[in-house]
Design goal:
The complex is a heterodimer. By secondary structure, chain A is mainly alpha-helical. Chain A contains eight helices and no strands. The model of chain A has no long low-confidence stretch (mean pLDDT 90). Helix content of chain B is 72%, strand content 0%. Among the domains of chain B are: 53 residues; 34 residues. Classes of the chains: A mainly alpha, B mainly alpha. Chain A: Heterooctamer of two A chains, two B chains, two C chains and two D chains.
């Protein structure tokens, strides 16, 4: 009898050992998602690298790309990255209105980026440079379009979080969500570095 | 305004008491501004090289674009994504290294295989070219 009692008394020790951080595991899990997203972009970059010079007697990057527009687009994404950083700094201070303000600015820069990209796509399609025209253009629209789709979903996420923050304030859950979106948003900027280097700049150099 | 700020401080303290151990994810104003200035410079250089036609050699221009791009990716990782070897007990770095290896295999492998496929293709004669569909 006393034996059983001592056993049950020792039992809780098993459960007290572990020190669990739910927020930390969210960050790691989201990082793993970003790494898997990286693989999607890697396959699309590989496809573009292989097919990027198969013009099928159609237009080449030097004919199509307006580097001034791409430079403006890159600036938009860079500005949105630093304004998101400012939003995170305000979040850490616990300043709700300032966080919302910087998130709004980030959203506007993201929207400008998307607008310029859609204008570029529209312009190219009007010139007959559609995805069906050549392997180069199929690969181009898939790669740059996938990045644009990511930015679109990032913007939807951003607006959702702005509503969440304005309704519930900077609670722990919203801080965690803002942290995840921050990683996503900066990750998209990293992918864009690859896009403007490999697709636009190296395309125009030839 | 004062009541507001005290409530903010409370929230701040509550947050930090609750979630120790992921400070690695936060940056400071200085780190964000440093990262931003570096990225602006590292973006401007390749655009200037291409738009201004600065270098005579195409190979040199492409090499410069790739090297500066790689440096800029590292800058973003460090200053914006706050990567370091200690966050999450080193697991983010492990995942990153694994991903870089897979990405390198996918990119280099695709280019290598397709290059050999292209060079080993039968050379097309003008007659064959005419009969293409």
């Amino acid at each position: 009898m006393s034996n059983i009692q001592s056993q049950s008394a020792e039992k809780p020790q098993f459960y007290l050992e572990e020190d669990h951080h739910p927020e930390g595991s969210t960050n790691l899990g989201f990082w793993l998602y970003l790494m898997s997203d990286c693989l999607i972009f890697a396959t699309l970059f590989a496809t573009y690298a292989v097919l990027g010079r198969n013009y099928a007697a159609g237009p080449s990057p030097a004919d199509l790309f307006d580097l001034k527009l791409v430079a403006i687009n890159t600036a938009m994404l860079l500005f949105s990255s630093i304004t998101y950083g400012f939003a995170m700094l305000q979040m850490e201070r616990g300043a709700k209105q300032e966080t919302l303000f910087w998130l709004g600015i980030t959203g506007l820069f993201g929207l400008a980026f998307l607008g310029i990209e859609l204008y570029e796509f529209h312009h190219m399609i009007l010139e007959g440079a559609t995805p069906q025209r050549s392997a180069f253009l199929s690969a181009f629209f898939t790669l740059v379009g996938t990045h644009g789709l990511h930015v679109t979903f990032g913007l939807i996420w951003l607006v959702t979080l702005m509503v969440q923050v304005s309704k519930h304030g900077l609670i722990a859950e919203n801080r965690r969500r803002l942290m995840c979106l921050s990683m996503f948003w900066h990750f998209l900027d990293v992918v864009w570095i690859g896009v403007f280097s490999v697709v636009y700049l190296m395309g125009v150099v030839g | 305004m004062t009541t507001n700020s005290t409530s903010h401080e409370d929230a701040h303290e509550a947050h930090h008491g609750h979630s120790h151990g992921h400070e690695a994810g936060h940056g400071s104003l200085k780190s964000y501004v440093t990262g931003f200035v570096l990225s602006v410079i590292l973006t401007a250089i390749p655009f200037w090289l291409v738009m201004g036609d600065v270098l005579d050699s195409k190979v040199a221009t492409v090499a410069a674009i790739m090297i500066i791009g790689a440096i800029q990716i590292v800058v973003h990782m460090v200053y914006f994504l706050h990567m370091n070897t200690k966050s999450e007990g080193g697991w983010t770095v492990m995942a990153l290294i694994f991903t870089i290896i897979i990405v390198a295999i996918a990119l280099i492998g695709s280019l290598w295989v397709m290059h050999h496929l292209n060079t080993n293709m039968m050379v097309m004669s003008p007659e064959m070219m005419k009969n293409l569909p």
